[in-house]
Amino acid sequence: MSRSVDSRLRRRLSVLALTACAGLTVLSVGPLVAQSQKPVAAKPAAIAPGPHAKLGLGRPALPEEIRAWDIDVRPDGQGLPPGKGTVRQGDEIFQTQCASCHGEFGQGNARWPVLAGGQGTLKADRPEKTIGSFWSDLSTVYDYIRRAMPFGNAQSLSADEIYAVTAYLLYLNDIVKDEDFELSDKNFSSVKLPNAGAFYEDDRETSEKAFWGKEPCMTNCKAEVKVTGRAAVLDVTPDSKSAPKVD
Amino acid sequence: MTSPRNTPPGNTAPGNTAGTAPAAEAGALSRRRFLGAATAAGAGLAGAGLARAEAPKPDPLITEVQDWNRYLGEGVDKRPYGTPSRFEKHVVRREVSWLTAAPESSVNFTPLHELDGIITPSGLCFERHHGGIADIDPANHRLMIHGLVDKPLVFTMEDLRRMPRQSHVHFLECAANSGMEWRGAQLNGCQFTHGMVHNLMYTGVPLKLLLAEAGLKPNAKWLMLEGADSSGMNRSLPVEKALDDVLIAFAMNGEALRPEQGYPLRAVVPGWEGNIWVKWLRRIEAGDMPWQAREETSKYTDLLADGRSRRFTFIMDAKSVVTNPSPQAPLRHKGRNVLSGLAWSGRGTIKRVDVTIDGGRNWQAARIDGPVLDKSLTRFYVDFDWAGQELLVQSRAIDSTGYVQPTKDELRKVRGVNSIYHNNGIQTWQVRPNGETENVEIG
Q1: Which positions in chain B touch A133 (Cβ < 8 Å)?
Q2: Residuewise pLDDT in 10s, chain B (443 residues)
Q3: What are the C-alpha distances in Å from B7 to residues B25, B160, B286, B424?
Q4: Which among A152, B12, B152, B168 is placed 20 to 30 Å from A204, CA to CA?
Q5: Is B307 in a helix, a strand, or coil?
Q6: Interface membership of A198 toward B (CB under 8 Å)
Q7: Within the 20-79 window of chain A, which residues sit less than 8 Å (CB to CB) from chain B?
Q8: Is the CB of B392 less than 8 angstroms away from the CB of A227?
Q9: Nearest CA to CA, how far is A201 from chain B (Å)?
């Protein structure tokens, strides 16, 4: 009896020695014990957890930690914090926190983003895409201000302040007309933005199907080629709002 | 597809150009057409670039001992982290200041015309930030996974470095690459028209391993990725993609991520628009619907002519550009030249690249060089003779799904000119007889 335990132990040690020789680190004793009964099959399996085994890394996230970081707001209202704010209150906050870039009425100073107006311009040659003319969900306004604004001092506004600024932006976009309108977590989801219905999922594989599977022309493809446009290098209207723009 | 020239370049005798050499007749038809006027000007080519008329003078760079040949150079400790030669100072990222309101929410451009092969040097990868470059000590960085999971988790960088890792080469292209060109030729250089792209080897942990660790609930259909920077960049990612090939990367080109590329942790979302490759990644929330974040409603949605917009246009379609010659890299020599370029597709591998020098009248397949990898930049070349005639150079990529890169006009016909993103239309460069090259549109 003690003989066989001895020999098993010796075999286990030899497995250990083998993995050590291969310069590998032993991650867990578990597999080693299991394999000590079948020492022949040992080598790589001896250190590798099974394909579906959990890695056992990371630690549980605590509720306070999740609360601290979970600042996102969805279109269905998930994530909205309790709170409220009126158009009037929002106007006041906007003038001190936002107007230096976005203008008193959200019209946008210099090349800073325009936040209001532009409704009915989406088919125009130069569309004006704002919260009122283009955005689909009010939740995006709250979510974005909460995480990223004011630019350079993010996450500095309180829940109530963000409700108020959001209410003011609705007012600037003629979506609410009453300066006493109060936006809160209770009535938030009832507010719909004008362009909500105008988005659809990527349909390139059907609407641009013609770009697939054709054997393109290789020789004598056209009779004549004319230059129709030239790069108007870096002198294109640098400060104009109609100049190309990345935002 | 093009076979190498039968005549060694150094032996080019008058008249002995590819089009007339009998041995070259097999592939000569397309090549002769491609080379155009080169045949006629053959006699002049041998002497191009060298003043053969004058008596040859010895080159002092050869006949005189140079400083670097006489004196000691710097020792091994001089540059613990190397930098390029001082003669390569022009090879830098560049910005176009009027594009954006602030440098912290802006973009700069990879100097594609100065690069070769398919790997972008780390220090030249274009940058796109929305709240500047976050400066994060990896010891203070955390990644949280929560929402519709069995067990919300927090990982440290040490945890992530103990997980099974993989390395893959992929391109990252900004959705707005070439976006300034929708209405016509605007910026003069492929760095500016196409330089919001880079291609690296990323090393990291497959996202599916992290999700398995937390245990995704069956109703988890979307993930929200969020950055730790001051823009709190957030995007919605479908779970299928996350379980397919997304990496959570801590290394690029063999070393830690550069700060401007998300140090210490970023998402790598192969083939998909750059914006969703969230940098400084700190949080992944699982949910049953997309978040409609600002970067997927106000931005990164594609306005079409009818006033409606596509959203979640994640994939970057097949695209290519000739990087040399190009406006910043004009032709400088008659005779032998190398046309070089890049092709890529978010839908798979590059199967073929066609090149024309006569504005699309005639095309020939370029020579693909080096590795052809999935959702990666792919290098192509055409070795050609130039007699000094005007060229209208284009390239056209075809990917493994059979998608053929469209012209800008074909794209505009479907999308109009206001969709900002996803401009993968064929680029035209006009090379003038003096070699100067300009960004043009042709009809």
Answers
A1: none
A2: 333 333 333 333 333 333 333 333 333 334 444 444 444 444 344 444 555 568 999 999 999 999 999 999 999 999 999 999 999 999 999 988 788 888 999 999 999 999 999 999 999 999 999 999 999 999 999 999 999 999 999 999 999 999 999 999 999 999 999 999 999 999 999 999 999 999 999 999 999 999 999 999 999 999 999 999 999 999 999 999 999 999 999 999 999 999 999 999 999 999 999 999 999 999 999 999 999 999 999 999 999 999 999 999 999 999 999 999 999 999 999 999 999 999 999 999 999 999 999 999 999 999 999 999 999 999 999 999 999 999 999 999 999 999 999 999 999 999 999 999 999 999 999 999 999 999 999 99
A3: 13, 55, 62, 37
A4: B168
A5: coil
A6: yes
A7: 54-55, 57-61, 65-66, 69-76, 78
A8: yes
A9: 5
ipTM, two decimals: 0.86
User: Quick check: B404 contacting A, CB < 8 Å?
Assistant: yes
DSSP symbols for chain A? -HHHHHHHHHHHHHHHHHHHHTTPPP--SHHHHHHTTSGGG-GGGGTPPPTT-----SEEPPHHHHHHH-----TT-TTPPS-EEEHHHHHHHHHHHTHHHH-TTS--STTSPP-S--TT-TTSSS----TTTT---HHHHHHHHHHH-STTSTT-S-HHHHHHHHHHHHHHTTS---TT-EEETTTGGG---TTGGGEEE--HHHHTGGGBS-----SS--S---EEEE--TTTS-TT-TTS----
Q: Best of B233, B248, B275, B298 to disrupt the A interface by mutation (most A CBs within 10 Å)?
A: B298
Nearest CA-CA partner of A187 in A200, A178, A199: A178
Given B185, B294, B363, which is nearest A140 (Cβ)?
A: B294
Q: Nearest CA of chain A to the CA of B403: how many Å?
A: 4
Phi/psi of residue B209, each to 5°? -70, -40
Token pair of A92 as six digits: 């006041």
Interface A:B, Cβ pairs < 8 A: 253
**158-197 in B: which are within 8 Å (CB) of A?**
159-160, 162-164, 176, 179-180, 183-188
Say whether residue B357 is in contact with chain A using an 8 A CB cutoff: no
Q: Which residues contact B189 (CB under 8 A, 6 or more apart)?
A: B113, B326, B327, B328, B439
Residues of A with CB below 8 A from B392's CB? Answer: 225, 227
Cis peptide before B264 (omega within 30 of 0): yes
Residue B254's identity, in one-letter code, is: G
Closest CA to A179 of A167, A165, A161, A163: A167
- Taking the model in full, what pTM does it have? 0.85
User: Measured between CB atoms, which of B155, B293, B403 is closest to A57?
Assistant: B155
| Both tokens assigned to A190 | 């009832």
